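Work Package 4 report. The design task specified in the project plan requires that, given a folded chain encoded as structure tokens, an amino acid be chosen for each position. We show below one input record used in the internal validation round.
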């Protein structure tokens, strides 16, 4: 009788190469390293990740507050800055301190990002500044793009963090600028009809993300096909 030996061995995880070529990436990297070297030892990367999530929840609640008070729009900008601090610095802090946890960090960071996007756009949907259907469309396309990026990361070993020189930091800045613009002109006239400014921006953003999704999916599928052609 043959004896079958089952070896329960954890597969080796290959940390994917990070590809970030956004406009602000070089300056941002230097800033984050500077901050990481000066962070108190009692603060670790998990604290920063939690801070980023709480900041996005607060941003969503601030948009809800903006329905009755414009102060909410200012609070959103503050929350976006806090989110940048936590979300961008957590990985840098782990690398500077040589405390990397590649699997844990990759998984938790992007689950937090998904919840953060839901909090933010959920708040926008309740704010009165963006139609709920526009917010839902924007969230849906964003999550679809995330799925494509994560699948490409697994299959190609490269984690692409920016498209067309635009990354998470640039998107936060664009949203903050949009919030300031809401103080002066919440509605715009297009083709003789009045629309909410954030509805126009949301539709443009959703279309842009959808185009990015298609281009990225086609390019990655082609690269994988060339690596594994039909013989």
């Amino acid at each position: 009788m043959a004896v079958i030996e089952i070896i329960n061995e954890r597969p080796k995880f290959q940390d994917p190469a990070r590809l970030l070529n956004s406009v602000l990436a070089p300056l941002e990297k230097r800033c984050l390293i500077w901050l990481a070297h000066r962070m108190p030892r009692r603060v670790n990367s998990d604290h920063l990740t939690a801070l980023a999530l709480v900041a996005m929840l607060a941003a969503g609640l601030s948009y809800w507050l903006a329905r009755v008070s414009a102060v909410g729009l200012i609070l959103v900008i503050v929350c976006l800055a806090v989110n940048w601090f936590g979300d961008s610095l957590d990985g840098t802090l782990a690398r500077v301190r040589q405390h990397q946890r590649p699997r844990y960090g990759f998984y938790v960071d992007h689950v937090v990002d998904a919840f953060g996007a839901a909090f933010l756009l959920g708040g926008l949907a309740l704010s009165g500044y963006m139609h709920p259907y526009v917010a839902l469309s924007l969230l849906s396309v964003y999550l679809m793009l995330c799925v494509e990026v994560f699948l490409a990361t697994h299959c190609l070993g490269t984690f692409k963090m920016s498209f067309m020189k635009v990354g998470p930091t640039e998107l936060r800045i664009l949203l903050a600028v949009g919030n300031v613009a809401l103080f002066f002109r919440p509605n715009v006239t297009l083709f003789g009809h009045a629309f909410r400014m954030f509805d126009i921006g949301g539709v443009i953003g959703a279309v842009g993300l959808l185009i990015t999704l298609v281009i990225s999916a086609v390019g990655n599928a082609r690269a994988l096909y060339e690596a594994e052609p039909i013989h």
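The longest strand covers residues 187-190. Validation will be extended to a larger panel in the next phase.
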